[in-house]
Amino acid sequence: MKKYLMGLVTMMMAVLVLAGCSSNASSDKKTLNIGILQIVQHGSLDAARQGFKSGLNQEIKKHDKDIKVKYDYMNAQGDQSNLNSMSQQLTSKKHDLLLGIATPAAQALSKKTKDTPILVTAVTNLKSAGLVKSNEKPKTNVSGTSDIGPVTKQIKLLTTLTQSDKPIGILYNSSEENSVLQVKMAKNYAKKNNLKLNVVSVTSTNDVASAVDSLKGKVSGIYLPTDNLMASSMKTIGKKAKEAKLPVVTGSIEMAEDGGTATYGLNYRDLGKQTGKMAYKVLVENKKVEDMPVEKAKTLHLYVNKAYAKEIGLDPAKIQKP
């Protein structure tokens, strides 16, 4: 009996030692804290955020790292006062890295801290937005991925879908720096190729429907740059444009999925993945953000919204890459 009790005690002590080792192993697991600020909720930006998480997770698994990631996500829902308060909250916490999704969110974070590394995505031009000294050598605490698309090829695609010689309509938010830049590119292309444009700007979702109505009968098609306001209003734009039998070419695939005819552009989930891989280099490989060049989308895709194309009398099979 005594030997039995001694054996039982020995077994219990062994179990306790193993449990302690397991607990210590668990506590030794590295945890990365990442704060995310997104300007507004819509398909493109949501895809970029999901892609970021996927890209970082893939790199962690690829290198067999025992790392846990905690995310502190905030969405300003397009409100500037929310951006200010949320960026203050995020920068006041001890995050290992901050992610800004879209230009206003990136700028809000950058203004609040010059110490915490910041990566951004869905920003058209980081230099013109005042986030980096140059896109090749940031020399600030900010870098990331640009969503600049092939604007000229997208305009060219639209010209192949139009069925009249009326001007091409462009609808954008004049208060978004990224949109202003893309519209400038479109105007330069139109001037060089003798294309007529009818450009309309809005600054509120309340004005989008009337803006599309104002283009009916005056344009042969509508071009939408990668614009947060336009992306948030795609269902309205798509419905109005279909009623007028107008083709709509968008700056991103997600926008075309939500109410456009077609696009030749980037996939925001893929762009987010690129940013996630950059995050791994910063957080695990200790690369300095200030030395990391801004990256562009590595692949572009032709996307055709077949249902939309058919509704306005186009054959989806005949829509080709520009």
TrEMBL record:
InterPro entries with a match to the protein in the record: ABC_transpt-TYRBP-like, Peripla_BP_I
CDD domains named among the record's database cross-references: PBP1_ABC_unchar_transporter (cd06325)
Signal peptide region: 1-19
Top-rank lineage group of the source organism: Bacteria
Keywords: Signal
PANTHER family assigned to the protein according to its UniProt record, in alphabetical order: ABC TRANSPORTER, SUBSTRATE-BINDING LIPOPROTEIN, ABC TRANSPORTER, SUBSTRATE-BINDING LIPOPROTEIN-RELATED
Protein name, entry field: ABC transporter substrate-binding protein
Organism in which the protein naturally occurs: Companilactobacillus keshanensis
Lineage: Bacteria, Bacillati, Bacillota, Bacilli, Lactobacillales
